[in-house]
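Structure ticket #2291
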Amino acid sequence: MDQNISLKQIFSKLMIEKVPSYANKLYYSLGFLSMTCFAILVATGAVMTAYGPNWWLTDSTGKYLRSVHLWATQGFVLFVLLHLIVVFLTSGYKKPRRLTWVLGALMFGFLLMEAEFGYVLRGDFSSQYRGLQGADFFNGSGLGGFLNEINVRQIFGIHVVVVPLIIVALLFMHYVLIRFRGIAKPYRQDMAAKTKTVKANHNVLFVRGFVLILIILGLAVVFPSPYLKPTTIKEVAQQDPSLISKTLLSEFINTSDTATYSDNLDPYTYNLRNVYVIQPYEKTVVTKHSTDQAAVFANEPAKIKAFQINQAQDYYDGKISKPQNNPVVSMIDAVTTMSQSGLYESYLVNANPSGDQTMYTLRFLADTGVMDDTAQQLGITTDQYGMLHEESSKYPVGAWWLAPLGVLDHTVLAHDDNGDRDGAIILGLAIMLLVLFPFIPILNSIPDKIKAYKIIWR
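Resolution: structure written out below.
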């Protein structure tokens, strides 16, 4: 009995007991439903982290949990957004609840970041392509020096540990403020006079949470998380070896997209010739005990080097037959063969001294043009509002919360040479405006003008 009383006491301390009469409506369950989705995300995320990507991509249980995780993400974003809208319409951010709004708005910003990082970690083509696009965004914003979306190890740590801890802290502080201040009552005296204080219906609240869990579990069955196998250098090399050879040559002579990368910040300052051609070629020399063509080329006079490079360009462009005794062609052909076997990509995965296992590979794939071509065919490029939907027509929704960025890309930023930078600035200002909204005169009185509170406070 004592134990039961103790549990009841703990429960009463955690839950709000007395609320305004309208607070038992669905409008005021949105915060609880948000936390329900977050709990599902933590649980499924913990299991997926424990078993690893291969499990959630190949095992039937793993694939199902991946689908549950994705639908819980959809729910979390939706309910937090709706919760903010209800608080906005009822002016629930007025004194002394400004800090409550600030914490909720910050949580929404980190939630959007967490969702995007989750897409990058999914392990399919969409992950690869979104990582490349996200990296461009952060490079444009100037944050690419320490936040690299194509560094899967870094993003994994941020997604699994850093951002969730921030969200937990914000959620805790947000709820503590609500718990001790109670549900916001009407700030207008005429509406407050009509409002009674009643007992909170916790049973209805938990039933709604349970129904939400069932809906998410069901949606994960009907609409499983889409998966399109990731693109590999081996696959491209086997299908189109000449494309690989041309790309290797562009890395060798520093004319590739990575070599000529132009943004507010360029983190791709490594030696492309060494990383993509010389060093992997040296691996083949050791195994085949052949003449080191890299050493031959290095010892040539500058004029001979220029001639051999031009000759290699003509050859790979199909203008001439294969030249004899051209060390550049010998190196490119050897690495192309290495690519077809899969050894080249394996080398690139482990070549980065910083431990970044994906940057060299994804940048090379981007330089081939295959990534953009495939994304265009799937309808997921930026100019197709691609970040808003999935590459599978069977999945009904995607990252719909990125619609404002899609609109910006097609309007304000349509002809902006610094679109990544300016988009980051606009997004940053928008989040700041959301966070500081309660403190901005005139703007913070908008709900009073539209009088939507009458619908919610009935």
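Closing remark: The chain has two domains: 14-228+391-456, 233-378.
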